[in-house]
Design brief:
The protein contains three helices and seven strands, in the order αββββαββαβ. The protein is of the alpha+beta class and 135 residues long. The protein has a single domain, classed as Electron Transport, Fmn-binding Protein, Chain A (Pnp Oxidase, Chain A, Roll), CATH 2.30.110.10. A seven-stranded antiparallel sheet has the order 2-1-5-6-7-4-3. The chain is globular, with a radius of gyration of 15 Å. Bound molecules: flavin mononucleotide. The site of flavin mononucleotide has 15 residues, from β2, β4 and α2.
């Protein structure tokens, strides 16, 4: 697995909404905005709340790979982050996420915890290094 650098962690913390891309087993692409997306202490695991996923959830079940990117007006770098996914609907980690989501808003269903293990990070700022693998 791959750990984000301190600089990447600082940029990650500034993000309000992340684009989250998945694909079906047959390669049909899908991208959605996600707000509840938290980098864990280890720097290599991301927790995402499944409140309203539909195609995203189907995709993760048949093809557990996906990507987000970190970029915004306040963010210095631009990082494309890819990873392996696991979906949990019970257990200690799910319960912890459920409480966290309910503390943000009682209206959120917190249907599942989507765990992303970071496998690759690519540069996505424009310039000579654009597209290159950095971690
Ligand atoms: C700003 C914004 C933030 C969102 N955050 C989340 C989120 O954290 N979790 C979630 O399940 N859905 C979230 N959604 C809803 C999803 O983007 C999307 O509507 C849902 O996954 C259904 O699309 P799908 O069929 O492609 O999965 C958010 C939507 C918006 C507009």
């Amino acid at each position: 697995m791959v750990k984000l650098s301190n600089e990447m962690k600082e940029d990650f913390a500034k993000m309000k909404v992340f684009p989250f891309a998945t694909a079906s087993k047959g390669g049909e692409p899908n991208v959605v905005p996600i707000g509840i997306c938290k980098l864990q202490e280890d720097g290599e695991t991301i927790w995402i709340a499944d409140n309203y996923f539909y195609k995203t959830r189907q995709n993760l079940e048949e093809n557990p790979r996906g990507a987000i990117y970190v970029w915004g007006p306040e963010v210095k770098g631009c990082y494309q982050i890819k990873g392996d996914f696991e979906v949990k609907t019970e257990g200690e980690a799910y319960e912890k996420m459920y409480k966290m989501v309910k503390s943000i808003g009682e209206r959120f269903p917190a249907k599942a915890l989507v765990i992303m293990k970071i496998t690759d990070v690519y540069e996505c700022k424009s310039g000579a290094e654009a597209g290159k693998k950095i971690l």
